[in-house]
Design goal:
Helix content: 25-40%
Shape: globular
Oligomer: single chain
Distance between the termini: 36 Å
């Protein structure tokens, strides 16, 4: 089942229309989802009872979950994020240069084909590239964690493309 992060407004509108819902709700749904750190709040949506009831049957909100979290002494937090499509990646939230800011690193693939001796990512080789929706979900997890800590994400770095 696809997740909201797999859609833009037009493709979500098409999916809603196929399911018998009003396609014009797509923008409202996505805006609500992203404004609420990757969760829907139907009390704010006003899309009608039919759409509310039908939505979970045609789409899932997320295709990922935080499997584990490790906080270092300097405040850096490493997340292991697992995907319903298989595999897991590391995403990192780092304190920023100001107390109200943070930086984040997201992965673009599971594993790596580079084969560098110093890196644990390469042990199993490149398993697969992540979908755009899976990359966006890492960002949503990190943004929510930053907000919980009273920080705002101001920098984003992509990992997993053979950086060396």
């Amino acid at each position: 089942m696809p997740a909201l992060t797999d859609f833009d407004v037009a493709s979500l509108g098409n999916e809603l229309a196929r399911a018998g819902c009003t396609a014009s709700h797509a923008g409202k749904l996505l805006r609500n989802f992203y404004d609420n750190h990757g969760g829907l709040d139907f009390t704010q949506l006003q899309v009608g009872k039919r759409a509310e009831a039908l939505f979970p049957a045609i789409l899932q909100e997320r295709q990922s979950s935080i499997v584990s979290r490790h906080i270092s002494a300097d405040g850096t937090t490493r997340f292991l994020i697992g995907f319903s499509g298989g595999g897991a990646v590391e995403s990192v939230l780092m304190p920023g240069y100001r107390a109200d800011r943070a930086a984040a690193c997201v992965s673009s693939q599971i594993g790596c084909a580079m084969g560098c001796d110093f890196c644990a990512r390469t042990r199993r080789g490149l398993e697969r590239s992540l979908s755009a929706g899976e990359i966006v979900e890492q960002f949503l997890h990190l943004r929510a964690a930053a907000a919980t800590a009273g920080r705002r994400l101001t920098s984003l770095v992509f990992m997993g493309m053979g950086e060396p």
